[in-house]
What does this fold into?
Amino acid sequence: MHPFTYHAATAVEDAVRQHSQRPAAQYIGGGTNLLDLMKEDVERPAHLIGLGKLPLAAIEAGPDGGLRLGALATNADTAWHPEVQRRYPLLSQAILAGASPQLRNMATNGGNLMQRTRCYYFYDTATPCNKREPGSGCSAIGGYNRIHAILGHSPQCIATHPSDMCVGLAALGATVRVSGPQGERAIPFRDFHRLPGDAPHIDNTLRPGELITALDLPNEDFSQHFTYLKLRDRSSYAFALVSVAAALQLDGDTIRAARLALGGVAHKPWRDEEAEAMLQGQPATPATFRRVAAAVVQGAHGFEHNTFKIELAKRAIVRALRQATAMSQPLNPNVFLNSNP
Ligand code: SF4
It folds into this structure.
């Protein structure tokens, strides 16, 4: 690990000022990903700005009747918060599908958005990787790519975003609140993470020095019919091969409104608003779900070891929408890979 200096920020303004004074600085919250990256020599910040003392851990009423999640609230406190469980149970389920209890106790909401891909080659500094070292090449294309993207990838990078929480936030249409040298602004969740394009080293649309301060959940009720379905190689502490966040509002058997997002398939949480529009006004039947699932993966393209994900994603979407309709999903969000759709 390379030497670095440390400053415990006393206020948001102090943190932002520190960052702007030291270009090689990074913010650190729970540190559950950044410290690993530093130990592996993937990240080399010269200066860390500790966020632990900032008053950003509250979960409270948000604008327009929604709920505001502090950026420094832990994933565990968020998942188990009574208002999150009552009004946004899809988010609670998505969070609890991720990581381990120990990690969820340390990891913060802001840090969850900032975590980096788990592409094997990104962590292996002996191999080329455009995300770690722009212009060096992509070892996953032509390498072992079982966990990689099937949607939205580029010839420069086929990595996936690892978060479960972010798939729930994408489906629910959250807003990311940030503070930076130019002041405060709000970023719609769908615009926060990037597809790789020609610049896979840039994961998100934050401007230099901007700090996530909160996540706003909209005042919409998707608490009656929802599921977070996560398919992975083992039943705990593994990243998703494919995950689906699905939520419906139903009038009898007819879908009044739908939310649908996928994880494990792209460089960003993959919300599909066209699929949501296709579901609206349709009967909540397997035939409808199969038609929509086929449309979601229409443009998918796999590589040598991950083409199976296209069919897996299709089946997972159908299963998730059926579970959301019937609310028959198990309490434990883990579902084994060999389950039938
Ligand atoms: Fe690096 Fe992306 Fe290629 Fe993985 S997929 S080796 S992160 S460029």
Residues 328-341 have pLDDT under 50 and may be disordered. The longest strand covers residues 242-251. The radius of gyration is 20 Å.
